[in-house]
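Q: My collaborator sent me two sequences in one message, no labels, and asked for predicted structures for both. Can we handle them in order? The first one she listed is below.
A: Yes, handling them in the order given. First sequence, followed by its structure tokens:
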Amino acid sequence: FDTTSSSATGNTTNTISWSHTVGNGANRLLAVCTQARDTAAGDVAVTTVTANGFPLTKARADLRTNGGSSFRTELWYLASPGIGAYTITVTWAGALASYGVGSATSYFGVNQVTPIDAHAGSGGTGTTLSTAITTVADHALITDCAIAQSDPLTIGTGQTSRVNRTTTGAVDAVGVSTVNDKTPAGPETMDWTQFGSQNWVLSAVAL
């Protein structure tokens, strides 16, 4: 793990930008978690993520629509980014009535040919956010991307919290966590707990 950065906590346009600096380790990877809420499911889909104009690749997207609101998390990545400062820009399909936010994390020691080991995601209603992911190779790092309609969020056992904050526009909780060395390879549950029994959505990717 290298470092984390995050956008502003609120945004109701269809785009947001923030700064992230990639360190000088070998075999680098930049990951971006996007989180959005709107009354229209079509608006919360991400169309592009860029870093200094370089396009990232989408690894995973998950959607939860219930009670007139749509919640969507996505994970995007860029293998072998250069060292130094980047402007991360996320663009959604439409302007967002509630919010569109994001966080970036960067890593060292990632397979540059096939960086994505596995991915999974889910959504529902309840106090527990949970998704099961099965890694393929030993020493995988798992990162997730969460929205909880009930603030605050509490991290699951065995995970390291990288981002845990409250959005503005609508008071939801958003988070990013990692499992840092999944050995031996196999099933892992990424989970959080939210304060009340409300909507949630969670995406996870193993590197």
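Q: And the one she listed second?
A: Here it is, processed independently of the first:
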Amino acid sequence: MLALAAAAAAALPQDSGPGASLLAADPGGPNADVLGPCLRTEAAGQRGGGCGAVSPSGVSWSYVMPQHTATGTVARYLTKKLGIESCHHLHTVGHPSSVTTSFTFVANPFSRMLTNAAFSGVLGNASFGPVHQVNNFRSWVLSLEAPHICGQKAMHNYFPDVYVGHVETLAADLETVLVRLGYTLPESPIVFEAEHCITSCAEDSVGPTAAGISADTTIPEGVEWYDEPTRRRVVQWFAHDFASFNFSQTPPSTLALGF
């Protein structure tokens, strides 16, 4: 069973980051600001303020945490289920020099921007209908000089030997990586006890109220959030993500929220 899991882990997509030296010449996207929010915490990550540990098999690892890619869910699992006290929920490219391998989970940039809008209070007010919220979202996207979230590929360039899973298959991909690293899991398949958060992810959040979401928060479903100008803006910001992870440049009809 363990051999099968290890073989599955080896089959995970790999995104071998060249490290910070090359990133200085190739910032990972056409917009140099695509890493701004994550560079500000780089020093903290280098001091061990990110999420990482030495696994039972002796591997020094780091978890790459782009915003709105289920990082709260994964960090809570690592700290509460596996007892990894050195995992801190921090969106940083910094990590100790001892790290030799990394893992991450990628999400569609269109979904990430929509969730970031909810996080920023741009949408989700139940007193406004879908049309008003869509207009707010589109105006907000076009008003930004740079996104508030970091490019995923740009972040990976700072880390060594990055294994890439997907938010859509989060539990299975996380289990594969952890077994590869030598962890004994309390259960298989992995089951996340806490709900994914849309706005602020409280330390022990298990639902909308605990996560800082008011009871009347409503994110309209089945609406077209993006028009052509906002679509182009997101594609331009996250060009490397679309190319590297084969995301469609057409916004999906159903956008996953809550990560």
